[in-house]
Specification:
This protein is of the alpha/beta class. The chain has helices at residues 16-29, 65-75, 87-93, 95-104, 149-155, 169-181, 203-207, 219-227, 249-252, 262-270, and strands spanning 37-41, 56-59, 80-86, 109-114, 117-118, 124-125, 160-165, 186-191, 210-212, 233-240. Strand 5 and strand 6 form a beta hairpin. The protein is globular and about 55 Å long.
Length: 271
């Protein structure tokens, strides 16, 4: 799952190389047959990831990696489903899908390769770009406050929220393994320097700030930890709630079974 007979279309030094290796090693160490895994993605540099791994995959529209994952999980709950794309695809065009999939708490894993720019389209500001950063579309500096996606995910009720750093591959691998094993929606934001278009958030910049934290089940403590950014950036499993019930596909959608009770279906729909 790690060696491919063709070149990979990422810039030399791109953090996606290490993320790909960490993901491939995680799947190998979990002894998951490739035919039981489905990766979904949208558009972007991070969204190329499934094309460079030997598993089933569905590469869809920009911002649509998560609904693809949800649809596949509904149809085939026996499969391991992983959505992977960049911060623009997941938090920008796919922002509503990100929020409402967390609410459902289906058993899927969401990996975000977060380089804080739109790397495929020449470095425009993404939802996570810091204020004041200059780029082709913001020559005077990005005027917008950045999204804090993990704080938002925790506030929305995500039961598993983690952050990794592409340079710390072995640590990232363990985070990915824990996310895949978790029963419920698991979110992993991965700090991934764009060596071509982001000259601020570099490997050195992240390396001077990242530190590892112990996992907590205290939602408010986890939100405060996730919110911290400029001086110190926490990595690890920031929040884990084992008591949050996973939504079983067959309970969520009775028509997936032989259930014909329309009144029960309507009650579930409006719950």
């Amino acid at each position: 799952m790690t060696n491919l007979p063709y070149d990979i279309a990422w810039c030399p030094g791109c953090g996606n190389f290490a993320i790909r290796t960490a993901l491939a090693e995680a799947l190998n160490e979990l002894n998951m047959p490739p035919q039981q895994i489905v990766l979904t993605s949208g558009i972007g540099q991070g969204a190329k990831m499934p094309q460079y791994l030997e598993t089933n995959y569905f590469n869809g529209l920009h911002g649509r990696s998560i609904p693809l994952a949800v649809g596949i999980k509904l149809a085939r709950p026996d499969l391991t489903v992983i959505a992977v794309s960049g911060d623009g695809c997941m938090y920008g065009e796919g922002g509503n899908h990100f929020l409402h999939t967390i609410r459902k708490n289906l058993d899927i894993t969401i990996l975000i390769t977060n380089n804080q720019v739109y790397g495929l389209t020449k470095g425009q500001s993404s939802p996570t770009t810091d204020p004041g950063v200059k780029n082709p579309l913001d020559p005077l500096g990005n005027p917008n406050a950045p999204l804090h996606p993990l704080t938002l995910a925790i506030a929305m009720g995500a039961p598993f929220v983690a952050r990794g750093f592409a340079r710390e591959k072995d640590h990232l691998k363990e985070l990915i393994k824990a996310a895949i094993r978790f029963e419920g929606t698991a979110v992993v934001d991965i700090l991934q320097p764009c060596v071509t278009f982001n000259k601020i958030n570099t490997y050195q910049w992240y390396g001077e700030r990242v530190y590892r934290v112990e996992t907590t089940a205290d939602r408010f403590e986890a939100m405060r930890t996730a919110e911290s950014w400029q001086d110190k950036i926490a990595t690890g499993i920031l929040f884990r709630d084992e008591k949050h019930p996973m939504r079983n596909v067959r309970d969520l959608f009775p028509l997936h079974t032989d259930q014909k009770d329309i009144e029960k279906l309507l009650r579930l729909y409006h719950a």
